[in-house]
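Changelog-linked ticket: LLZGTKA7 example.
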Amino acid sequence: MNPLILENATANVASPVLVALDFSTADAALAFAARLDPSQCRLKVGKELFTAAGPQLVEQLAARGFQVFLDLKFHDIPNTVAHACKMAADIGVWMVNVHASGGRRMMSAAAEALANYSQRPLLIAVTVLTSMEAADLAEIGITVPPQEHVLRLARLTRDSGFDGVVCSAQEAPLLKAELGQDFKLVTPGIRLADSAADDQRRVMTPVAALQAGADYLVIGRPITKAVDPLAVLSGINADIRAWQLSQA
Ligand SMILES: O=c1ccn([C@@H]2O[C@H](COP(=O)(O)O)[C@@H](O)[C@H]2O)c(=O)[nH]1
């Protein structure tokens, strides 16, 4: 693992928010990140930005103190996914993910590939994309309700040695009850009460998602496309803090 990244990555992040940096250039992503404080959020680098800017961008964000979720959703044969996860760990990312529908052998290979890292990224598997609803699943031959399929894939993920799953916050109460508090739930599809849902289908507001049991909130467009992104992020963090204090 890159020692510079280990030295710089912020350990104390006071918020469960992961800002999705869905930008098309490194310059745009770095300019946006320069406005953020690494103690106030983590960052997610997905397929668009990684394809445009590559591992150097991830290293630059980490060198600025951000913990980075590399959201490439690996889905391939076990050998390929295992090696891809090792490359992600070598860049120094804080979290990396695969598709749970790649199956037990694929996920076990990924977990084994990272087993000897002294400080490995959190290993997470995507269950059912938050953009999908029952009708989308039916078209690909999955006729059970989304929550049932999410639970099935989450159980497989846990049994394959992973740390948690990507799911919607709507499934969080069921997953926490069935899989325990320590199994991490990473939830995109987060929308403010007045945000457009866009292409997301299984959505929830930030505080409702935490109440439901989400550990991390992935938020992209409601922050990045806002007129004042920092004000939106600060407002979300303030609402979360107020809710946390009300629970203490
Ligand atoms: O099920 C999933 C898995 C990943 N994502 C990613 O999260 C963000 C969400 O962005 P918004 O702009 O807040 O919709 C995006 O990068 C997706 O690739 C997801 O939405 N759902």
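Closing comment: Example verified and attached. Residues 3-247 form a domain with the TIM Barrel fold (CATH 3.20.20.70). The first strand starts at residue 17 and ends at 20.
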